[in-house]
Amino acid sequence: MKLCTFKTGREQRVGVLMDNGKILDVNYGYAAALKAAGKAKPQERADVMTPPCMIGIIESGEEGKECIREAMAYASQNPDAAGPEGETLIYAPEEITYMAPIPAPSKIFSIAINNRQKYEIADLPDGPKHPYYFIKVPTCVVGPYDTLEIPKEIGNVGSESEMAFVIAKKGRFIDEKDAESYVYGYTVHNDLTAHWLRDNREWIVSKRSAEEGGDKRLTYAGRYKCYDSFAPMGPYLVTADEIEDVNNLDIDAWLDGEHIQTGNTRDMFFKIPYLISYLSGAHTLCAGDIVSWGTVQGGDEKHAEKRKDIKVKFQHVDLGKGKVLTTEVEGIGKIANPIKVISDNMIK
């Protein structure tokens, strides 16, 4: 299934993409199906099994998915039906406003330098190899067609096109062999990064004696990763059962139609089960948490050899000079975000 969070006016709802390309309100749709079947208190039951918020849908698990399938079957057979109190069940895509599938996740883990070409040539500390990550704040998240606001004072802001996976249920110290059951589905994400700000403002040298190991240059993934709108996502949360091989999906990005990134999930160094196990060793994972898998290397010669149908020269483009950033993950979806340059008077 392809699930989405959408708005009609001020009301936030959860929908599912039907075979005819329209969006079914899963809560009202299931309530209507229950009422037609003569069930008591159909809306109350639907509010429990198919609540109008994505995290609630995720928490309802496989039973909730089955309820959504029942709603889809009913709506397909009764395209003019309404909810128990006359509510609209089915919308054309142009009648709704798509939001991010999970508008306010409790945590967004972003896996850093997970592309095999970059990871294998990086200088690493002694000891076993392990993932590196940072946590983006929920206010970074915007919808698949929302405007990206880029402060003119922060210099070059770049595209990092990624596939993200969404946690299905609460867990801690998850064994790698059990990790796949913790994946609810996948969505498209672009992890916008203010490169100039990172390199010129967001670092500090900690002074230390020779005995303490000498001076250390420190950089923290704070502001340069976490401006509002720096995490566009969507349009759908695609359930895990829809994707045959998550380790072989193309990822691409365009700025005003110019192809600026291309790669494939097979190039991710750390795979999803290991990442879930690793992250859960330090953090309690909750339903609706998002893990962004890492960006692709770009259109270098190695990728050109693998994907001869694509001719793209990777470059660290400045998104602030463009109008629309488009990001696509094969089988998951495509987002297209207009760009607006704003001012940040805090940057000097």
UniProtKB/TrEMBL annotation:
Coiled coil: none
Hydrolase in keyword set: yes
SUPFAM superfamilies: FAH
GO molecular function annotation: hydrolase activity
Metal-binding found in the keyword field: yes
Keywords: Hydrolase, Metal-binding
Domain of life: Bacteria
Domain Fumarylacetoacetase-like C-terminal: 118-339
Family, per entry: Belongs to the FAH family.
Record-given protein name: Fumarylacetoacetate hydrolase family protein
Organism: Faecalicatena acetigenes
